[in-house]
Amino acid sequence: MRRLAFLVVAGLALAACGSSSHPSTTGDAAAKAQIKSAYEKFFSAQSSVSDRAAVLQNGSKFKPVIQAFASNPLAKNVNVAVSSVTLQGADKAKVVYTVKLGSAGLPKQNGTAVRQSGTWKVGYASLCRLVALQGSTPSACKP
């Protein structure tokens, strides 16, 4: 009888361990989808400056940079393709993406995403790195 009780308890313990990893996998998939969506919204010509700021880490601080980007006539043809998202803990992620202007694109970029107030957002370091490619760094990007 003791042996049967031990097997039942051990089986329940293993089942509990197995089921606890399932929500984590589901949570990881949801986090990755939210990150990809944030990147797509941020780089979409259809997104307003306010919408872009909402999906950018500390977005209100970067509204002038976002406005300058959005007012550029070339921005109407910009979009993004996210090729991978790698979670790095509960609140950070690495994002590999390509910014496309029409059919042409920049080389693959390594970006970040952060969870801010429970929502995944494009890490502002990603925006700062892209802006720096044109030769200037906005004051909002400087520590």
Molecular structure report:
With 143 residues, the chain is α+β, with helices and mostly antiparallel strands. 46% of the residues lie in helices and 24% in strands. The chain has 4 helices and 5 strands. The protein has helices at residues 2-43, 49-54, 63-71, 124-132; strands at residues 78-87, 92-101, 104-105, 109-116, 119-122. Strands 1, 2, 3, 4 and 5 form a 5-stranded antiparallel β-sheet that branches.
Write the layout of secondary structure elements.
Blueprint: H1 2-43, H2 49-54, H3 63-71, E1 78-87, E2 92-101, E3 104-105, E4 109-116, E5 119-122, H4 124-132
Antiparallel strand pairs: 1-2, 2-3, 2-4, 4-5
Brief account:
With 143 residues, this protein is α+β, with helices and mostly antiparallel strands. Helix content is 46%, strand content 24%. Strands 1, 2, 3, 4 and 5 form a five-stranded antiparallel β-sheet that branches.
Fraction of helical residues: 40-55%
Pairing-aware structural class of the strands and helices?
Answer: alpha+beta
Mean pLDDT: 81
Outline the low-pLDDT stretches: 1-23
Q: Measured on Cα atoms, how large is the radius of gyration?
A: 21 Å
The CATH architecture term is: Roll
Q: CATH top level?
A: Alpha Beta
**CATH fold-type name:** Nuclear Transport Factor 2, Chain: A
Major sheet description: 5 strands, antiparallel
Total number of β-strand segments? 5
Portion of residues in beta strands equals: 15-25%
Shape: globular
Please provide the ordered H/E string of secondary-structure elements.
Answer: HHHEEEEEH
Supply the number of structural domains: 1
Number of helices: 4
Task: Tell me the distance between the termini.
Answer: 67 Å
